[in-house]
Amino acid sequence: MDIQQSSQPTAVIQTNTPPDKRRKWLKKLYTQRHIQIMALLGIAWMIIFNYIPMYGVVIAFKDYDIIRTISEAPWVGLEHFKEFLADENFGYVMRNTLGISLLKLATFPLPIIFALFLNEVRSLRFKKSIQTISYLPHFLSWVVLGGILATWLSDIGIFNKIFMALNLIDQPISFLAEPKYFWTIVITSDIWKELGWSAIIYLAAITSISPEMYEAARIDGAGRFQQMWYVTLPAIKATISILFILAVSGVMNSNFDQILVLRNSLNDSASNVIDYYVYYTGLSQGRFSYSTAVGLFKSVIAITLLLIANQVSKKLNDTSLF
User: Fold this and answer.
1) pLDDT of residue 17 exceeding 60
2) Torsion angle, CA of 281/46/195/269, rounded to 10 degrees?
3) How much of the chain exceeds pLDDT 70, in percent?
4) Vertex 276, ends 275 and 278: CA angle to 5°?
5) What distance in Å separates the CA atoms of residue 75 and residue 130, rounded to the nearest whole number?
């Protein structure tokens, strides 16, 4: 009898157990249903436009044309890759791509320096004015900026007038018609367009630094430059490392939009990069399999550079993407 009575409270405790984790999860999911729907739409967009089209990469290993479907096209293996490596254009296409991209990579510290000095500006009005002026070119497309640069760099453009007024040149120069000036134009115009915008993330990282660190540095006698070197830079080291990894992985990208609007037949020897070569052979010549193979070749190199840069950064700074 005593045993039966003592077992009853146990049954009551079992019936009053809290809801299981699954019910809690479903309830939380329901309360966040609007946010979850927005996230699902983004995931669906990514799958439809980024992942499903990856099936088309298979034509790099086939002899595809628009008459046949991808499945009907015969396999040719690595023939298109071998053809690209043996192409007479391979040498200067790779030279232009790596030359322009490495020079752009060399300008990587400029947004960091700009952000450091902009952070030291005490006048809020002046600081906002500089930010607005430096950000503005980013919001203009390369079609617009290309037209502006073509006008400025023409025979009767403002640069020729300034150089002739300063007696730096004797006669006007058509800068975009000279291959030797093309890389300089590309690099400087890219800095002009993206310097301010690229500095935003560094400014955001700087604002997260505790003011107490600067106060401690000032108490120790550190000047403004010493504070930048010993406080600000170490504090944003992780951000710099991540962005540098991404910059290294993009070495094979030469900004197709910029190249397309600034290039012409006269500067082809300096402006024919992989991105334009893929566009020209794929759309203009209709060599879809060959251009896909060239694009895949570029992507493989980009992934390899990403893995190498990530591993090096992980060992040196203990910071990595994965």
Assistant:
1) no
2) -10
3) 94
4) 70
5) 57
